[in-house]
Structure to design on (616 residues):
């Protein structure tokens, strides 16, 4: 769907990693999708539509949801926001999803997590029609990914994979390590890397001596949420490092700044290529949400899927 | 469902691995299931029923299917065999599965693979009601496994896991390597080991220097179908080795014998514990099919699942 990154593919200066420009890549991807949206409208007189459901008033979730709506609109898609009170019952939420499932104007449905109170995220996620599950978090899409079948893939690992394929090229035969085994990032990331022919190791909270294993990895994807967990001792010289973590930490003068799970100032002297935080993986997530919505619209309207 | 293996847990002689007695374990598991079947009948007046569908006349498949029927009967379950001609159409096969899906006497459905001709194994497998998918090969059960939800797990990796839990105990924090990335064994095996808290590496045909990675593994599961692929140089001293492979190879005098993917005579001097071939993993597969059928019957009749 998008071409390779156009930034200068020069060999990095020894001792200084090439920066992986996720922000620029995401901007180009969004532009490509906007073109796809126009062409799709010209063919079918249908504009892809994304419904985002937010329950409750979590301020961080409100920011995410608003940003998703803005980017959706920017790509020329229709954005439908459903903001429900914290008192919403499971039945009410499931009834809304049932309506969105059969609404022909809606091609993607996203329920912002976490859900407040007693709402069951597994039941809610799996109530979404798998063809509209643009977060790729339901059982059917997870199963399709696990079995190597086409489907909708979770947005953050998909964004990481697009960056890797653009900056590394063919991944076949490379050693990859994924640090963190969440359903949102680590596990689907491992599946995607396996699909590309990597030898994949998944490390997590129970892993002993993770840095010994990490130092064998040509590709290191870190998604733990522990800021500064991965220092220079984890990194194989020349490796490509994808830092999914993003945490706000205090610095001097009472100020704060955003940092990743990787100690960037150590890693950039050892890695061959590395994502900065912010501006690396972050912008890719929403761009991949739009990509998934475009894919879902194609599948629903044309009956053809689109794999990574 | 079954207790730990009762074979003598003695420390192995240095230089000689303890044999993992899959045959004995499978026999005890089948006896336990037979007791569960009797207790289930006493509670519900329902006998678990397994339908096995065989299309065509592949001699190996006929042996497998007959053996499955015999073992099912031995465990006190009802066995239903559907042997269809090679000329069976996709529509006829799907129509049979649809009937079995709604048949209250059937709790498990297994379609013997490979299917002949143009029959689509993915479409056929996914036509089985996920609650009756006792091979665990459908998208829904693969997704449930990938997401850490309860479900029906493919029989061979489940059998390997039961042996590992019995012979190793708590697997948390151990380094595990799975050699082979098939949907039938390698991939679900990796998911199961991850669920137990192992650090999991999946190696396959594209892996470079697999023996270097393998020598770091406390648990080595080999499922490639390449007889003799894994020699002593792959094995960490004291590791537990599970050999899923089974191939018939020629020996002198025009005779043949069954061997695994592991060079047993080298491995047994390095490994701490190892499955023989035959008599290791093989007998566990059918026992786990019966276990899954019992689990499916419970889920269908009582509405409660049973996880590993």
């Amino acid at each position: 769907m998008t071409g390779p990154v156009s930034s200068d593919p020069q060999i990095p200066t020894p001792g200084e990693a090439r920066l992986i420009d996720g922000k620029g890549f995401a901007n180009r991807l969004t532009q490509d999708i906007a073109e796809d949206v126009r062409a799709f409208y010209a063919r079918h007189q249908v504009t892809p539509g994304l419904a985002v459901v937010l329950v409750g008033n979590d301020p961080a979730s409100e920011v995410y949801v608003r940003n998703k709506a803005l980017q959706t609109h920017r790509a020329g898609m229709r954005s439908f926001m459903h903001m429900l009170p914290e008192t919403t019952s499971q039945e009410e939420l499931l009834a809304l999803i049932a309506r969105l499932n059969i609404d022909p104007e809606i091609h993607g449905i996203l329920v912002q997590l976490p859900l407040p109170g007693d709402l069951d995220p597994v039941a809610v996620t799996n109530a979404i029609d798998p063809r509209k599950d643009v977060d790729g978090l339901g059982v059917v899409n997870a199963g399709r990914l696990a079995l190597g079948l086409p489907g909708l893939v979770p947005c953050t690992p998909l964004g990481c994979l697009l960056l890797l394929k653009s900056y590394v090229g063919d991944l076949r035969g490379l050693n990859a390590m994924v640090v963190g085994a969440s359903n949102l990032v680590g596990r689907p990331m491992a599946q995607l890397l396996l699909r590309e022919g990597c030898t994949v190791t998944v490390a997590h909270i129970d892993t002993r001596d993770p840095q010994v294993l990490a130092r064998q990895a040509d590709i290191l994807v870190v998604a733990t949420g522990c800021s500064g967990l991965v220092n220079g001792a984890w990194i194989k010289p020349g490796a490509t490092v994808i830092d999914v973590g993003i945490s706000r930490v205090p610095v001097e003068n009472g100020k704060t700044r955003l940092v990743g799970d990787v100690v960037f100032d150590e890693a950039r002297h050892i890695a061959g290529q590395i994502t900065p935080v912010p501006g690396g993986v972050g912008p890719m997530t929403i761009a991949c949400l739009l990509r998934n919505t475009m894919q879902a619209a194609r599948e629903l309207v044309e009956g053809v899927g689109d794999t990574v």
Summary: Chain B touches chain A at residues 122, 138-149, 172-173, 175, 181, 183, 187-188, 190-191, 194, 197-204, 206-208, 210, 213, 216 (CB under 8 Å). Confidence is low (pLDDT under 50) at residues 1-10 of chain B. Chain B has two domains: 16-20+151-281, 43-148+283-295. The domain at 16-20+151-281 of chain B is CATH 3.40.50.720 (Rossmann fold).
